[in-house]
Amino acid sequence: MSTLMILNGPNLNLLGTREPEQYGYETLADVEIMCREAAKAHGCKVDFRQSNHEGMLVDAIHEARELMLEGKLLGIVFNPGAYTHTSIALHDAIKGTEVPVIEVHISNVHAREAFRHHSYISPAATGIVIGMGAYGYVLGINGLITKLKK
Ligand code: DQA
Prior knowledge:
By secondary structure, this protein is of the alpha/beta class.
């Protein structure tokens, strides 16, 4: 069975209690359940991860490449959190591994502070889902699988 990696960056472990007016009341555990159900509908399973550390996220992308080369992984649905706006290392990891990545943001970053308007991830991403709440992860999964079928 093919696997999708769902990768979450810093502070996303706080979902449910963190600024609910921005991020809603779903916890990361709720998001994981939504992702597992969405992936299952496509006959896929999910490797669900979260880290507050940039290097761990880089390592996960490198690991995804190995799994992809072994035919075990289709791609990544990635919410990089605040590293979206700062991390050239994550940009380079996606470019360097050529793993298909769908960038997801729960909130509409373009309707927020100016420092959230720029993403280092977007130019390296296969697709982007912004501002659709936790449902954005499901859209990301469906979008990734649909794109890969083309
Ligand atoms: C976020 C948006 C980022 O600007 C922020 O730093 C996050 C979450 C989102 O899902 O809306 O941590 O990626």
